[in-house]
Structures are given as C-alpha cells and as structure tokens.
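Q: Hi! First time doing this. I have a protein sequence and I read that you can turn it into a structure. Is that right? Here it is:
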Amino acid sequence: MPKTLYVRVSGQADALDRFEAAWHLASGRRPPAPLALLSFADLPLLMKNLTPARWELLRELKKAGPVTIFALAKLLERDYKNVHTDVARLVELNLIGKNQDGKISVSWGAVRAELRLNA
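A: Yes, that's right. Below is the predicted 3D structure, encoded as structure tokens:
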C-alpha cells in the first residue's frame, strides 16, 4: 500500500484525464506505481467529509497506533458517539482501517491535497 494518500477536488473531466494517463502508462513496459487517490467533486464536499475534528482524529490516531474507538474517544476527550460517527465515515473513505480485533488505525504517512482553481 502506498504511504501517501492524495486528496483532490476535481470534476469528471479531470477523472477522465487521469484514466487516459493511466491507460497510456499501463501500455508501457513497466506497470505504474500504485497511487492512492481520494477525489471530491467540490471543496464544500471535501470540507464536509474532512472536518477539523476529523483531521485532528486522524492525526491523534496516527500517533497512538491501533486502538479501539472507545480508547480514541478517551484520548481525544470527545463523546464516544461522535467519535464513532467520524470513524465510520473515515473508514468508508478508506482514510482509516479496521483490523480483525476491531482496532482502528491510519496507515498513511502523509496526505497531500490538490485544489485546482480551474476544476
């Protein structure tokens, strides 16, 4: 798994351009390096999903390592229900992983964002 997650705000045209570029790379001699990409249609949607509280949750979870949601809520000094809701959404987005023991963790070492003005 790549260590960097790329987050972009991009429209459908940009997605088609990326597909075309990947197609051309795949037709070469060597397969392209894996790329982890999370795209949002617009900035309001990105901000709805990656709120400041969720960003802080990701940072603290990365520092703490694999923990339960209950332990994370205690660490963050936040209500368990709210942390559980945030974790569920971040798992859906593949920003957080969940192991067989039910512990959650962040595998990304970095998140890079690209916000295009002409998207």
